[in-house]
Amino acid sequence: MRGCVLEIRALLVLVVLLLAGCEAAREYDRLEGATMGTYYRVTALCPGVGGATLQRQLETELERVNAQMSTYQPDSELMRFNGTPTGEWVPASSELMTVITTAKEISRWSEGAFDVTVSALVNLWGFGPGGRISKRPSEETIAAVRKHLGYQHLELDPAAQSMRRLAPSTVDLSAIAKGHAVDRLGLLLEKQGCGDYLVDIGGEVRGEGLSPSGRLWRVGVEVPDPGQVGGVQKILALDSMAVATSGDYRNFLDLAGERYSHTLDPRTGYPVQHDLASVTVVHPSAMWADGLATALNVLGPEEGFELAEQRQLAAFFLIRRPNGFEERYTSAMQKYLDQTQERNR
Predict the structure, then answer these.
(1) β-strand 217-222 against 13-16: which pairing, if any?
(2) Domain-located, residue 292
(3) Within 10 Å of residue 258's Cβ, how many Cβ atoms?
């Protein structure tokens, strides 16, 4: 899964800013930088604070997220938790507890297609901090790793603000942490009185209020084809909503002439082998959109669509066909597509 993996999402969601010559009337700050192995971009109208001061606040918050949830920082809260003895209760920050609680809920919904205990599996297939591999893992090795996987092995005690692992598995939050970071930057902006903003971290996006054009923020779902970089399949308007996309066409592994997706299915231990090219989810929370997009991507075009309809999720699927991509979207996504079409008339 992108989440069952260290998902490096590139620009699966393209941000389309419609400026329409309104800068003089509406002075938006445009800030950007590097974080979480990717980029962040913030465009915001903040009457009380802006510029370098606002950017320092944003980057301080991003540093806190990394200090809590990074798998690349050996001293992060998550990595310290991963290194504790099995069965030992460990105090946890409220933020880390929130993300893992959400992850476990998505795991239950998807019956294990989304699972943050897949760190060892991600590394085994060469998509983790250890780097690429040159030979496909053996069935025996995969089976041995899978014995210790399972979101059920994570226990949380909200009253004591602590958690523990019941098996020697390690946690990887790459499938949900960027969305969580988007939500936190949005909350920071709102506390600063910024009523109109767009936050984008590696393609996970949240839009609030209006863009500099005076219209809703618009984002484009990218055509999931490396040969059409920058191509837009659909445009969505964000009205106090977040959007996340999970796909497999930018990050994959070639071994002995065979291509393996970075989207791993924790239920099998292998990369997925279905025709779903990408799935986009619109949700009030970027964290939820992030994790759900990964879960649906792992499940594939049939199981994923069924779950999305069952849970009334706004989801847009792009499925590979011999003559191109088939679009399929849930009933809950219909209003966003209609809304966009209406605003484009």
Answers:
(1) antiparallel
(2) no
(3) 8
Q: What burial class does residue 323 get, using C-beta atoms within 10 Å of its C-beta: 0-12 exposed, 13-18 middle, 19+ buried?
A: exposed
Mean pLDDT of the chain: 87
Q: Is residue 276 part of a domain?
A: no
Q: What is the CATH number of the domain that holds 115?
A: 1.10.3980.10
Number of domains in the chain: 1
- CA-to-CA distance for 71 and 325, rounded, in angstroms? 34
In a domain, 126, yes or no: yes
Distance CA 88, CA 168 (A): 11
Expressed as residue numbers, the domain containing 142 is: 71-165
Instruction: Count the neighbouring beta carbons within 10 Å of the beta carbon of residue 327.
Output: 13
Q: Which residues pair with 27 in a beta bridge?
A: none
Strand order in the sheet with 90-91: 90-91, 162-165, 154-157
**CA 254/CA 274 separation, integer angstroms:** 17
d(CA 112, CA 110): 5
Question: Which tens digits make up the pLDDT trace of 253-286?
Answer: 666 666 667 788 999 998 888 899 999 999 999 9
pTM, two decimal places: 0.88
Classify residue 160 as exposed, middle or buried by CB count within 10 Å of its CB (0-12, 13-18, 19+): exposed
In a domain, 263, yes or no: no
Q: So what's the pLDDT on residue 268?
A: 93
| pLDDT band for position 339 (cuts 50, 70, 90) | low
- The three-state secondary structure class of 200 is strand
